[in-house]
Amino acid sequence: MKMLPPLLLLIVFHSHTCLSVTVSTSTPKVEIHEHTDAVLPCEFKTEKDQNPRIEWKKKGKGVTFVYFDKTFPKSYAGRAKIEGATLTIHSVTQKDSGEYRCEVTATEDHVNLGEATVTLNVLVPPHVPSCEVPSSVFVGSNLELFCKDKLSVPPATYRWYKDNKALTATGDAPYSVDTNKGTLKFKSVSKEDTGMYRCESSNSAGAPKSCVAKQLTVVENPWNMTMLIASASGFAVLILFCCICICICRRRGCCKNSRKTKTTKSYNPPPPPPPPTINFKHYKQTQSFMI
After folding, report:
1. Does domain 20-123 have CATH number 2.30.30.30?
2. Are 48 and 140 within 8 A, CB to CB?
3. Domain locations in the chain as residue ranges
4. Omega before 5 cis (within 30°)?
5. What is the tens place of the pLDDT at every residue in 129-151?
């Protein structure tokens, strides 16, 4: 078999490698603030096809078209444009976050399909968080306050304030704070925990936001006071009842003794019955009859 000259091999190899479309992106990850314009860059190069087909798709639960057959679907119409193969989406929202794929089809090239992926992450500054603070709670109760901002991206971290002073969970603090979940927990509240509570959410996308402060009042449990009063009253009644019983028993005992004494002194035994009398006249007649 005759070997081809090196120059000819280079020409053949070059012809095969250049007969393919190439697609790339200069920014595979785009982070942009909400309500601004997001530019998703896509560059391509073809060898023969001067009019390739350009498509953009978004990957989510399924695959949806963003740009197809030189048109935008209704959800992107009027707020997106194509320059070359670069996609620009105006006034993005959190719903626009996701993975986008730029596809270029060049039917005249040897390898006629190329693609590049761009991930769009829309940053959302903190929103006013929802804060759950009860108006009142009983002394000694377990208590958990909740704070949540579901819209901020990246996820917010949280800080609690009492009377405009930040709460930090030190070793001897009667509470614990979860800065990621936004919870403030008390094992056993006291009257000193009464005050105005608010929560603040923050992230790297914007200024922190706080909910309106709410009053928390720690009060005595009325059931505990009622039970205490009832217990004291019951104890007093029990003592009074015991005293009355003792007095009655003593009085009854004295009456019995006096009755016994009176009965003993006034008791006179009845006189003995008289001896039987013998009728001598009847006795003699009886004896004479027998003889």
Report:
1. no
2. no
3. 20-123, 130-219
4. no
5. 999 999 999 999 999 999 999 99
